[in-house]
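Why predict the complex rather than its parts? Because the way molecules touch one another can change local conformation, and only a joint prediction can capture that. The input here totals 596 residues.
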Amino acid sequence: MTSDNELRRRFVNALDEVIPPAPALEARVLESLRREERQGRALRPGPRSNSATPGAGMHRHLRALDSDSIRAPRFMALVAALLAFAIVVSMAFAARALHLRSSVPAHSGHQFVRLWSRSIDNGLDKSTAFTSDGFVLIVDQESGRIIKLNASDGRERMRWGSLGDGPGQFNLLIGIAVDAENNVYATDYYGGKVVKFDENGKFLRQWSTELPTIGPFGIGVDAADRIYVAVRRDHDHHMEVFTPDGVLLAEYGRTGTGDGEFAPNGANYDQTGPNQIVVEPDGKVWVSDDGSGRLYHFASDGRLLLQAGAGTQLSTGHRFGNVLPGFDGHVYAAAAELHEFDASGHDLGIFDAKDVGLPDHPGYYPQPIADPSGKYLYVWDRVDSTLTKFLRQ
Amino acid sequence: LTWGIGGKKILATGPSGGRVSRMTVASTVSIGQTDLVALAKAGDEGAFSALLQPLIASAYRLASSMLHDPHAAQDVVQESSLKAWRKIAQLKDGWEMRPWFFGIVANECRSARRSRWWSVLKVEDPERNAEPPADSVAAYSDLRRAVRRLKHRRRLLLVLHWYLDLPVAEIASLTRSSEDAVKSELSRAIRQLRSVLGEVEAR
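Output of the joint prediction:
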């Protein structure tokens, strides 16, 4: 039997081996604290502990009422409740004034936080990405623009991009991803290129995928800032991996009908192939194949880890055409309904619009967008062009 | 060590004025912590940051050990930090920041593991691979699997004591239990770990 000291040494090594350094974490945490302080959203300690800032988000107020940090006499609690009620009512009127819908029904499994509507085109799946400093990016394919919204209140911070062939312009803007420094990468399918912007939308560089024709579709970034691009080009569907400067590191996958291959479809060449992708921090990639209706999970070196969907060992009879990031390493894969898969490929069930209290649009699935903090779920309703925010419970 | 705190500066330097031993620094930090806590409770975000900053790396290691997901661990540390800031007024006089903050992190880890939240229509499990993809890091994988099989509390105690090197007294403060209870639970955790590894019978 090993000694306690030897077991402890092995214990420490075992954990050290799989915990990567997080050099940016300290800055991220301190920045989030500063942001809270600036925006006045935190329940301020000490003398200011009961002074939730007017204008802060509704969810903050709700949290404030729940917080056990508030230890006021009953009368004060009543006053606070009345004040909160007044704030909620005034916010509801404000929302009406801003033409925001507020008719989302209650649901026991989540807490509605906010709904807003923006002039974002509908009809297509939205590629989205979160920045580490609290913004959500959504692509607007019709205008070739990237829209940056404040994830806490939905206010638009900025939008940039345009249609065209020039640097930083898009013929068909499809995918979007953000690296650790909040640089933004976007794919131009018909332009055959990947475009990189800084966090303020300043054009930095662009590069073509291996063959500068159509093709770049879904895009994602791993924890090491490697850029993964699904290339959708008939008879040459595959994945490409780049450095942040556009140097090709690797490629894997191919057109075919075998395991892990992307199905061809002659005439409708741009209707098949890999769709959006979800890249995990360690470089594993989830990708859906429109042609075969399969969902693939690849290791960082391109090995096929599992496949689900029509005609696979994890066959559910469904044909999957899109994949979206979920919480806890899960993904959502879209067929006629939106299924949730865990990392082992288990189909956990259907994410239904009704589950989050949203209107059900037959033929369309709600598009959930998982906040990387794991705190909120955003749901894009592409029929009504609304984005709704829920507090995860 | 010099911290800027909301326009003020608090100086905490070893007696030699230059390179200081770890023990000296820890002692000096401990002396300055009372002031920092008081400032933080008064709403000084800079003081709170100064208290928090030395704990972030360890908190990340704690969360990663509990969640086995570095990405989620970073989120937990960030969320715990915001929660600690909102609740700093609850840090009682005489309490240390470290066990109090690590307690919040541990609770957040527990919440993160429970956080299936929306109702879904369960469908019959499809055929599936019995085993998940092999761990790419082969060494110590048996031990890691054994650690994952420990209950949350036992894993937490082992991580705090063995991995983060926290003394039993501090762990007792963090878990709000007695030192004897912590020692006893640690002993059972080690025994269970050995059992899972096939070394001895568990009790």
